[in-house]
Amino acid sequence: MALTPPAPVSMNPLARLHADIMRERRRSEPLPPGEHEFSWARTRAMRTDPLRLLLDSYERYGPVFTLRLLHQPVVFAIGPEANHYITVSHAQNFLWRDGSFADLIALLGDGLLTIDGDYHRTSRKLMLPVFHRERIAAAAGTMVEETERALAGWEPGTEVDIYQWTRALAMRVAQRALFGFDPDASRHGFDEAEAFEQALSFYAADYALQIARGPRTPWTRMQRARRLLDGLIFGEIARRRASGRRGDDILSLLLDARDEEGNTLSDQAVRDQVMTLLFAGHDTTTSTVTFLFYELARHPQVLQRLLDEQDRVLGGRLPTAAELMGGEALPELEMALDETLRLYPPAWIGPRMNREAFELHGVRVPARSYVNYSSWVSHHLPEVFPEPEAFVPERFAPEAKAALPKGAYVPFGGGSRTCIGMRFGQLEIKTIATLVLQRFRLELRPGYTLRIRQMPTLSPIGGLPMRVRERALPGVLAGAADAAASPA
Ligand code: HEM
After folding, report:
1. Could you tell me if residue 212 is inside a domain?
2. Of 12, 47, 69, 322, which one has the greatest count of Cβ atoms within 10 A?
3. Cα dihedral value 379, 385, 390, 393, nearest 10
4. Residue 416 CA: which ligand 1 atom is closest?
5. Do 409 and 342 touch, CB atoms closer than 8 A?
6. By alpha-carbon position, which residue is closest to atom 9 of ligand 1?
7. Which helix (H) or strand (E) holds 12?
8. Is residue 6 part of a domain?
9. Using CB atoms within 10 A of its CB, is residue 401 exposed (0-12), middle (13-18) or buried (19+)?
């Protein structure tokens, strides 16, 4: 197995447009049923309300259908069977790098998320030890320490943007626990969480703006933020190479990695893996904490059950890593998290391209098509999750969860590309939630309406401002949720 990064992918929008058009011209077989003609309205709907568009298309055309988005036809494969087919049983037929999210490479480079084949297998194997259970448990101390530090500034009666707050916190946790960076060393003089927010906003811009280049375009802003983050990562790589300092972290593993032929990773290859893990390691966690508090504020009975459980099990003390890692010690928290990830799986789409033609649900998909699976859409199928819009954590009681069909619930993907940071993310979310719940109650602003941005991951548009209140006495939940607050 070789540690050789793949050939670069062009980030020139015109070159990519040309490649898409040529591929379509060469295609000799028809695409699955659906909407094949160009339509601005559909392209826009995919930006503004993809969940509705995709659920309606599923109703109309069945689980495998085509939608032309902008210039390119994209195949969607929805539901338990499709998720399992793409991520597990036929995963080797699907490439991430050639899929419709390849423009993430402009920010992340060739990290675990955007590579395939041999380089993906070798890189994943190299990093896996850091994600073993015992190593994750050891990160719990950092998570508690950082959460306590972040909570120290909270004053009852004030408002906190829980999304921005969690992003800054999760970024510090990822830097320290995954890479052994010292976020307080302030050698770079910029805010890493803000730089990521800035870089990622490129992917939420309108298509027309995304292809624009030049001063003040989203592309240029993204490149500027990327350079700041690059400076941080390359700086740490240089320091570690010079000092020879190593630890239990991923950066140390990457710097010392060597394949059978003795090849090592270049600084650029190390940077790409670090950037990918910094992104994936904080962005999804941030959204999940935010959506969890949003739903708890709207469901006082669920919140009360969580508080009762905390009082009963922890009695005000800090949780242990073991209590947070299994679902047994704090089952109410576990179910609330599962249900949050059903309703709002941050990595909501699995973008791929199929090498060979395949058939699924009796529908044939020609070779080299953009094919996406989607957890978000699959988690909203009423035949799998009755009343899919309702927040009902009991759906994930252990027996009910075990009875779900294969591929029905995929917030962390599946198969050989299952989220490598799943345990890390779950532990971090539960740590943050527990520490907040033990001390504070969070209320939505009256009349707040959740609007969701989905690019590149699900997050609340404009953040989530919440009013901080003192935690009520055990068993007494002061006030009710704001009835006006509702999801978009
Ligand atoms: C709530 C938290 C998280 C969720 C919901 C989540 C979700 C996902 C999903 C759905 C995928 C697969 C995407 C696909 O099939 O195309 C994935 C992959 C990945 N995730 Fe996560 N993730 C979370 C947290 C994390 C954390 C904390 C890290 C790092 C510490 C991480 C690192 C990665 C990486 C590197 C991949 C690519 C894996 C591969 O292709 O081998 N994720 N994640």
Report:
1. yes
2. 69
3. -90
4. 41
5. yes
6. 412
7. none
8. no
9. middle
DSSP H or E run through 218: helix 218-243
Pocket test for ligand 1, best of 419, 423, 424 (most atoms within 8 A of CB): 419
3 domain-assigned: no
Residue from 284, 287, 333, 427 to probe ligand 1 pocket by mutation (most atoms less than 8 Å from CB): 284
Q: Quick check: is 8 in a domain?
A: no
Contacts for 141 with CB less than 8 Å, ≥ 6 apart: none
Residues in the ligand 1 pocket, defined by CB under 6 Å: 87, 96, 112-113, 124, 178, 276-277, 280-281, 284-285, 288, 341, 345-347, 350, 411-413, 417, 419-421, 424-425
Domain count across the chain? 1
> What number does the ligand 1 atom closest to the CA of 425 have?
27
Residue bearing the CA closest to ligand 1, atom 7: 412
Atom nearest to 424 CA in ligand 1:
27
Tokens at 61, concatenated: 């055309």
Q: Distance of CA 455 to CAs 74, 349, 444, Å? A: 16, 10, 24
Ligand 1 centroid to Cα of residue 10, in Å, is: 24
pLDDT in tens, the chain (488 residues): 678 899 999 889 889 999 999 999 999 999 999 999 999 999 999 999 999 999 999 999 999 999 999 999 999 999 999 999 999 999 999 999 999 999 999 999 999 999 999 999 999 999 998 899 998 998 999 999 999 999 999 999 999 999 999 999 999 999 999 998 888 875 667 888 888 889 989 998 888 888 899 898 999 999 999 999 999 999 999 999 999 988 888 999 999 998 888 888 999 999 999 999 999 989 999 999 999 999 999 999 999 999 999 999 999 899 999 999 987 999 999 999 999 999 999 999 999 999 999 999 999 999 999 999 999 999 999 999 999 999 999 999 999 999 999 999 999 999 999 999 999 999 999 999 999 999 999 999 999 999 999 988 999 999 999 999 998 655 444 333 333 333 33
**Containing structural domain, residue 161:** 13-487
Residue with CA closest to ligand 1 atom 18: 419
* Residue in the block written with tokens 């060739």: 110
| Helix or strand (DSSP H, E) at 462 | none
Q: What residue's CA is closest to ligand 1, atom 19?
A: 419
Which ranges constitute the DSSP H helices of 128-177? 133-138, 140-151, 162-173
